[in-house]
Amino acid sequence: GGTTATTAPSDGGTSTSAPATAGAATAGPTPEGGPKQGGKLVAAIEGEPTSVDPAFDYDFVSGLATSSISEPLLVFCENDQKLCPNLAEAWEVSADGLVYTMHIRQGVTFHDGTPMTVEDVVFSLDRIRNPDLGSYVGWMLASVATVEATDDKTVVITLSAPDALFEYALASTA
Description:
Layout: E1 6-7, E2 15-16, H1 60-69, E3 74-77, E4 82-85, E5 88-93, E6 99-104, H2 118-129, E7 144-151, E8 154-159, H3 166-172
Antiparallel strand pairs: 1-2, 3-4, 5-6, 6-8, 7-8
């Protein structure tokens, strides 16, 4: 399967996307051996998601739906005891805990084949922390002072103060 990301379309709304070959969502192979496009996926969950927008997926059911179609920079691993790379394939933290340098995985595409860029990462983080949006998870990024792409593979996030939960936020929001 491929890797997915979340970004906003030109109309200012949010578009979440998943590759046609994502895990359990993959349709059976076609006679030619490739993935089958289209069709219907039926999933049983305990309620109706209120949103599939990562900025508003704070309830359990919406979180399940959103995490099925978008991915965060980091992920929980080793029985949720550690954070591991995901859309950020590596990262460094400055000695004072204020600067996070995220090395963004290359070759990631949205469901339509559009490449994910560092600008998409900057947009997604800035959108969630924008107070005008009223994101349910914006508080998780309250310590962020700036988010900037320093080259086509690197995003630097500067905090206004050290935040022990910041890396958790990068694994909890897309």
